[in-house]
């Protein structure tokens, strides 16, 4: 329906408002018409009385009746030279019901009298008093019937209403066309652009180009363009991530099989009599086992979830020492000092493999940040506890996180802490800690270094796996 559209409703409202404006004009117009009608009757009556005076009042009853009929009144009274004189007269069919003095009637009074006359259909005899024209005396007074007055007022009102209706329709039509051109068509264009974009949001060619000349519509188109651009980029990013996840899952699957073979050979090396091999074999077996476990968890990550942690009581110092030893080997050519400030007897409930991954990721990021600036540095791992929480802090003396990393912290492929980094380490670490019911926080970062804190609740029970970000 037309009324369900913006332009149709605007057309209807325009007609209503224009008609309302015309009604507000109609009332004073009818009041003005009534006043002019009565003044014309007074003027006719004065002309008739002057005709009588010009003949020295020597006219017959028939001529007097004709003069009164032409004037539309029953009698005429003139006040001249301080004397009140009945100049023309005829029988009045009924008593005078009311008098109207036009000499001092203001607009409110004229409007009220006009509305009363329109509302009263009964013919009445009224007295009308006014001032003679051309100084024809001090006062003129006539009596007349209201029926002709009301009929003339109704005819005039109908003409005004008809004219108002024509004006309102024409005005509404012009405004309708203007709204169609200036508002409705641009809005339809925006809606069409949204529909076209929704069919293939990854296609850059379907992003709207702002063209509206109206400022508000232009701002809306500009905002929509920005939103579509960001959405297209996000969809492409997600598509690339999906493809990357599929590729990583395939690589992890084959790599796990290769590492399983290497693990068999490492197991056999443990039986060697060579002292050096005996010392290296357990560490090699542990590293290969972690690599196999990482491949398995990567496959789980590709299924959009990390495996739930297997909580057990673990000594923090042992896990920290193992992660530190691996990073010390990687930092053999750098002047980086590793400090462990973990109480030997501190025990917490966690998955040892997942906790090792978190600590390894944090220490690796710290080592790479210090090595990138080419200066000596220090990495400190602290741990303590209170009544409710175990806390492990990893701090470094590196250059601090770049702004982009702080803005997209813990987001895969966006929160990388170094050039060329993917940000997966922090994202996976945060997810693993959330799986324990805890949280990974950035305590502070800046030119003096960076501090991350792992907070694990003491009252936590086994937590369901958290969906990957």
From TrEMBL:
<dbReference type="InterPro" id="IPR036097">
    <property type="entry name" value="HisK_dim/P_sf"/>
</dbReference>
<keyword id="KW-0067">ATP-binding</keyword>
<keyword id="KW-0808">Transferase</keyword>
<keyword id="KW-0418">Kinase</keyword>
<dbReference type="InterPro" id="IPR004358">
    <property type="entry name" value="Sig_transdc_His_kin-like_C"/>
</dbReference>
<feature type="transmembrane region" description="Helical">
    <location>
        <begin position="160"/>
        <end position="179"/>
    </location>
</feature>
<keyword id="KW-0812">Transmembrane</keyword>
<dbReference type="InterPro" id="IPR003594">
    <property type="entry name" value="HATPase_dom"/>
</dbReference>
<feature type="transmembrane region" description="Helical">
    <location>
        <begin position="6"/>
        <end position="31"/>
    </location>
</feature>
<keyword id="KW-1133">Transmembrane helix</keyword>
<keyword id="KW-0175">Coiled coil</keyword>
<dbReference type="InterPro" id="IPR003661">
    <property type="entry name" value="HisK_dim/P_dom"/>
</dbReference>
<keyword id="KW-0472">Membrane</keyword>
<keyword id="KW-0597">Phosphoprotein</keyword>
<feature type="coiled-coil region">
    <location>
        <begin position="217"/>
        <end position="244"/>
    </location>
</feature>
<dbReference type="GO" id="GO:0005524">
    <property type="term" value="F:ATP binding"/>
</dbReference>
<dbReference type="InterPro" id="IPR036890">
    <property type="entry name" value="HATPase_C_sf"/>
</dbReference>
<dbReference type="Pfam" id="PF00512">
    <property type="entry name" value="HisKA"/>
</dbReference>
<dbReference type="InterPro" id="IPR005467">
    <property type="entry name" value="His_kinase_dom"/>
</dbReference>
<dbReference type="GO" id="GO:0000155">
    <property type="term" value="F:phosphorelay sensor kinase activity"/>
</dbReference>
<dbReference type="Pfam" id="PF02518">
    <property type="entry name" value="HATPase_c"/>
</dbReference>
<feature type="domain" description="Histidine kinase">
    <location>
        <begin position="250"/>
        <end position="460"/>
    </location>
</feature>
<keyword id="KW-0547">Nucleotide-binding</keyword>
<keyword id="KW-0902">Two-component regulatory system</keyword>
<protein>
    <recommendedName>
        <fullName>histidine kinase</fullName>
        <ecNumber>2.7.13.3</ecNumber>
    </recommendedName>
</protein>
